[in-house]
Amino acid sequence: MTSLLLNTLAMAGKAPMESPAWDGFKNLVNALSVPEVSLPLIFFLVFIPMFVFYKWWTKPAVAALLGIVFCIFYFGSMLIDYDYLLIVTKADNVPITIMLVGVGVTLWVAFRRAAINDTALAQGKPLPVEGKDDKVLVWPDLVYTEMLCLILGSIILVVWSILLRAPLESPANPLGPPNPSKAPWYFLGLQEMLVYFDPWMAGVILPGMIVSGLIGMPYFDTNPKGNGYYTIKERPFAIFTWLLGFIILWVVLIIFGTFLRGPNWNFFGPYQYWDSHLSVPLTNINLSDYVWVFGLKQPLPDNPFVREMPGIIFVIFWVCVLPVILAKTIMRKMYNQMGMLRFAYMALHLVIMGMMPLKMVLRWVFTLKYFIYLPEFNLNL
Amino acid sequence: MISSVFDYIRNSQVWNSIFRHGIPRDRRTRVMAVMSNVFLHLHPVAVRKSGIRLSFTWCMGGLTFFLFLAEAITGVLLMFYYRPVPERAFMDIIALRSHVTLGLLREIHRWGAHAMIIAIWLHMMRVFLTGSYKPPREFNWGVGVILLVITMLLSFTGYLLPWDQLAIWAITVGSNMGKATPGFGMQGPLTDFVKIGGIPFVTPRSDAAFILLAGTSVGENALLRFYVLHCIALPLAAAVLIAIHFWRIRKDGGISGPM
After folding, report:
1. What ipTM did this prediction achieve?
2. A239 to A12, A236, A331, B210: CA distances (angstroms)
3. B33/B67 same-domain check
């Protein structure tokens, strides 16, 4: 695929330019793409406005313009940078591009229809599409659609398979790990979490809680509205939280893990060469150091539980006390509607999910390594 | 001439024994077409017009099922050419590429697997955004979540089988997480306390990662184990749950719409 693309570009006289004309742009994008800059930018400049202005940006003309800008940026970058071209056209990364486009298009359809429905609901009118109760026969209407999807799916799959060889690297060598060693791309959100958490959290607890949270969702979401049609206004908290998890903490982190993490899991901008000799100083500091050494100006206590008491108190507060505070204050209405058990289940998952952005921000701002550092029990959080 | 041949076939005993209704042209025969066919009768006879619009379902659930079938068919064909032992596995994959007629099998299988993961995520997003997991469909959403996990495990176990660098190191990264399981992995928190009469219950040869890999690292036992999981255990589990998933769609009222 890469060579095919390179040859095509070369024949068109458009081999990836490494000319200095683009250096300013590339350096800017590289600088902006470090997680502590890009994740807040994505959250505040893309994710939040996506909800606030959803009736505006989903208009076909605006959405088309946004799509074109994205495509120019995403695909056009291949023309100006060789390192970026190599990453995006790597065979196993091609599905990520497809996922990205797929998520974008489907989000647009969903938000568009939600905008139309919400406008109708606000005016007290019936839902324009879902509101109609007319039925059609499965044969031919549904069977026809299914067959078209089947044919189209087959064609796309076969063409994709003809154009793109399934990746195969050198034979397995148990003594020679590649650098970086990466899990399959759909798990890279979790591998990216390894930067902030130990494996028992990132690899066991977090995925476990994703599954238990998803399965429990229909039981603790007691909002009877928005059942069977697109809407945002009738269930803003559910949709915001769920999409925050799926879009930011899953899809975006997959992009980070595949495109922007190079040798030794160091961060590299999209237009940066993956230098395996780059050394990044490890300057992260535990909460116990902050409290005892920097705060109280004394050596760390010998007893590990005394030493880690600040972190233990914080984690107990975050997991056990914070849900109670939420239930008494901003989520009082939700608590009354859901009841204790449902609320406890939901809030536990919510605060654990909240721990991910919390730890990320604390890492960026205070270079915090662990809340609790108990290597005596392999228990670091 | 030709039409009379067709008429003869359509009126023959063989044809009528297979299709017990006429050409589905009117309402009665269209209903019959769905009800008298084992595959089509997964559907109800009539559905909401708004529910089957492409902009409502995106057909992602259907595509996921289509990809599952494509994976099953190409997977069976791939099993003819592949031996799950370290000495053979990699060369068998090379042979698939160079010697086998229509050598697209592995490509279709691999890209189909990736496409299936994407389709299942988008399907879930659609079901979530339309609130279709809400009563009475709570249980079916849970079945769907298990199917998501199985699909990702299917893809994960299949990732090892080519036995190249990409394969063993991706699986090493993934299975290292097993070593960190609290209480059950050697490097996991609190594992030191899991003892019976002072004897450690969890050892490097009995922890969670060992159970997954049948070894302390990704080796020939892991290859065999992942092969059996990939070709037998997980697809069977998926097939059973897919049957439940589809059956429950009908029992819970078909494609969702406003209550």
Report:
1. 0.94
2. 46, 5, 16, 40
3. no
